[in-house]
Amino acid sequence: MPGKPTYEELEAQVQSLQQQVADLEDDLHRAQWDGEFFSRSMLENLPFDFWVQDLQDQIILQSNLSRRHWGEALKGSDITKGLPESGVKLLKENKSKVAKGQTVAWEMQTGDGDLDTRIFYNILSPVYSRGVLRGMLGIFFDVTDQRIAQEALNDSRLRLRVLLAQMPGAMMWTTDVNLRNTLSLGAALGSIGLESTQTPGMSLEDFFAISTPDFPPIRAHQAALKGISSAYEIVWSQRTFQAHTEPLRKQNGEIAGVISVAIDVTERKNIETALRESNEMARALLNASTDSVVLLDRQGAILALNQTCASNLRSSVDDALSECVWDLPQKYMPSLEQAQIQAVLDTGKSLRYSDERNNRFYDVLVYPIHDQEDHVDRVAVFARDVTAQKQAEEEKLRLESQLQQAQKAEAIGTLASGIAHDFNNILSAIMGYTEMCTMEIPEGSMAHNNLLQVLKASHRAKDLVGQILTFSRQKGQEQKPVQMDLVVNEALKLLRASLPSTITFRRYIKREMGKVLADPTALHQVLMNLCTNASHAMRNAGGVLEVRLENKAFEPDEPLPDPGMAPGRYLRLTVSDTGHGMDAQTMERIFDPYFTTKEMGEGAGLGLAVVQGIVNSHGGVITVKSTLGEGSSFRVYLPETDTCDVDEQDEILPAPRGQERILFVDDEPDLLQLGKQMLEHLGYQVVTFLNPNEALQEFTQNPGAFDCVVTDQTMPYMTGGVLAQKILEIKPDTPIVLCTGYSEIMSEEKAKTLGIRGYMMKPLELFRFSSIVREALDASV
């Protein structure tokens, strides 16, 4: 259906009709108004109401359309007869204007306001004939449909304004063909600092607040003028918009401008950016994780995985996607059994289990993932390599075991130290009184020789106490050049008598094979322990015990028996047996403290641990070879030394004597009496005290009465070290000798720093004791 004519078109038609009327008037004048020269068929069929009236308001011509509108023919009648009252009034007012030569136009409504109501646009124009006003030309245009369409358009525009005003972040604008704004609507205008009233007439540069014509939205508007639609994104006053631009067309299709719509997507963009950053962060964290992470669907297809998992599958992330996990090699990652995955999918419950592959240990968690309908459609698998953790736990258990062993050793050491202290006091009495007796009995007599044997055994006992203190880590071993063959032969003399007859004993030892820097008693203990263990291994079936001592030199390019050794000259002590031997597992632990293969009550598991400790403290190493059922062989390598011997005095030398006054303090009555007797035997004047407080009081009252003070270290009420300090405060140059069998808080070095001149480890031996006292006295001269 063709569109309704516009007002401009109607005006053109009126002007055309006016010309036609003028022409008709000429024709009428020539035909004396008889109408025969009119083309009635044309006039009567015009598409609007048309009539011509004379100056007496009589209708002389009308169109067929006007007859339908007004109900009957108006020819020869007054035009006002078909008009409503309001229309008659307006017609009379406008006729007076036409009589003056004016053309007038107005609107008029007919009907009672119901569905039959019509709206007419009326034009009344004068009609001239040869310059003389002859009548009037009236035209009524029915614009009812146009008014309805205009109202609908206005209503649509209002609805659009309301819609855009209520839509947060939305706006629209139009431009003319010169790209100047003609209309702007929408709530989003405020977010970019604009109002709808200020935009009409704006150029696009001002509208978008930019200075470059190459701006993408401007190019989109230019394209719209060519009939091309565009969608684009624009950042506008720090807000992000998605916009769409279309050509704005007239009814005839001609482009009259541009229309654009934009939606503020800033928040959505921010959310998308945050989500993208979150996903990237999650992806980075997953790829940085050393755990294997994989997402599987119900068929086992890989939906996602991290780099660690891809590496364990011996694949790349891209290549592994969409692959079935059960079709890929799982040699380097924990097993993912289809039944386990299916159980999680069916029950919706997570599953955790441990697995071991290629000596690697894994902790695996299979976790269900629910969809929007709460159905489990995927599972996430997290696999952690806990090998290091498991090894750390095993190491922790091992260290805890070592700590327990160390605590046991510490307890034994504390007990040993206490025993050593008491035993030194006993030995002091034995050795001291024996030495005193030897001075009273003639040399060469049987009694004198027996007493010398007692002294020799007492010295051995003293060395054993030293070993106890060494074990308790309270006393270092005193090492000196030792003729190794002499020590070995002396130990074997004692050992041979204790071996059962079922064991054949063989030894291969040459004289003067060389010296080692060692503690003879410690070496004696090493040999006795090794031989005792060998004897125990053959006690049921008998066998051969062999002890061999030989020189062994290792050149720089020669393989060494142990990595801890250095090239050089060694003395090698070998103890072999043909007993039951050991397996590899036992050999790995034989030097561990408290490890023993003996029955309960037969051994404490300390023998070989102590042996290894002694050998290591002498700069040597110990190795072992053994075959189960054939026997064992232990080899001790000790570095050979060229250091000259320290002169040893086996005979009892005369003890140094003196006549000075000595204050002697000890809480043990027997030792106090022994010390007094020894010193008085040597000519000294001795005053004794059991209580250190009483001794201090006596010295305080008479400091000049004493030339030397001899005191025990461990005493009730006051230690010997404290007593020495108080005495030196009273008389700084007083010679003091400190005696101790064992002390945790006192050493020879510390005693010297306190100003104590003499330091003696018990037991008290006459010659050594008297020598230390004499040296302390002489140092003050």
UniProtKB/TrEMBL annotation:
<dbReference type="InterPro" id="IPR004358">
    <property type="entry name" value="Sig_transdc_His_kin-like_C"/>
</dbReference>
<dbReference type="InterPro" id="IPR011006">
    <property type="entry name" value="CheY-like_superfamily"/>
</dbReference>
<keyword id="KW-0175">Coiled coil</keyword>
<feature type="domain" description="Histidine kinase">
    <location>
        <begin position="418"/>
        <end position="642"/>
    </location>
</feature>
<dbReference type="InterPro" id="IPR000014">
    <property type="entry name" value="PAS"/>
</dbReference>
<keyword id="KW-0418">Kinase</keyword>
<dbReference type="InterPro" id="IPR013656">
    <property type="entry name" value="PAS_4"/>
</dbReference>
<dbReference type="Pfam" id="PF00072">
    <property type="entry name" value="Response_reg"/>
</dbReference>
<dbReference type="InterPro" id="IPR005467">
    <property type="entry name" value="His_kinase_dom"/>
</dbReference>
<dbReference type="InterPro" id="IPR036890">
    <property type="entry name" value="HATPase_C_sf"/>
</dbReference>
<feature type="modified residue" description="4-aspartylphosphate">
    <location>
        <position position="712"/>
    </location>
</feature>
<feature type="domain" description="PAC">
    <location>
        <begin position="347"/>
        <end position="398"/>
    </location>
</feature>
<dbReference type="GO" id="GO:0000155">
    <property type="term" value="F:phosphorelay sensor kinase activity"/>
</dbReference>
<feature type="domain" description="PAC">
    <location>
        <begin position="221"/>
        <end position="277"/>
    </location>
</feature>
<dbReference type="InterPro" id="IPR003661">
    <property type="entry name" value="HisK_dim/P_dom"/>
</dbReference>
<dbReference type="InterPro" id="IPR001789">
    <property type="entry name" value="Sig_transdc_resp-reg_receiver"/>
</dbReference>
<keyword id="KW-0808">Transferase</keyword>
<dbReference type="Pfam" id="PF08448">
    <property type="entry name" value="PAS_4"/>
</dbReference>
<feature type="coiled-coil region">
    <location>
        <begin position="7"/>
        <end position="34"/>
    </location>
</feature>
<keyword id="KW-0597">Phosphoprotein</keyword>
<dbReference type="InterPro" id="IPR036097">
    <property type="entry name" value="HisK_dim/P_sf"/>
</dbReference>
<dbReference type="InterPro" id="IPR000700">
    <property type="entry name" value="PAS-assoc_C"/>
</dbReference>
<dbReference type="InterPro" id="IPR003594">
    <property type="entry name" value="HATPase_dom"/>
</dbReference>
<protein>
    <recommendedName>
        <fullName>histidine kinase</fullName>
        <ecNumber>2.7.13.3</ecNumber>
    </recommendedName>
</protein>
<dbReference type="Pfam" id="PF00512">
    <property type="entry name" value="HisKA"/>
</dbReference>
<feature type="domain" description="Response regulatory">
    <location>
        <begin position="661"/>
        <end position="777"/>
    </location>
</feature>
<dbReference type="InterPro" id="IPR035965">
    <property type="entry name" value="PAS-like_dom_sf"/>
</dbReference>
<dbReference type="Pfam" id="PF02518">
    <property type="entry name" value="HATPase_c"/>
</dbReference>
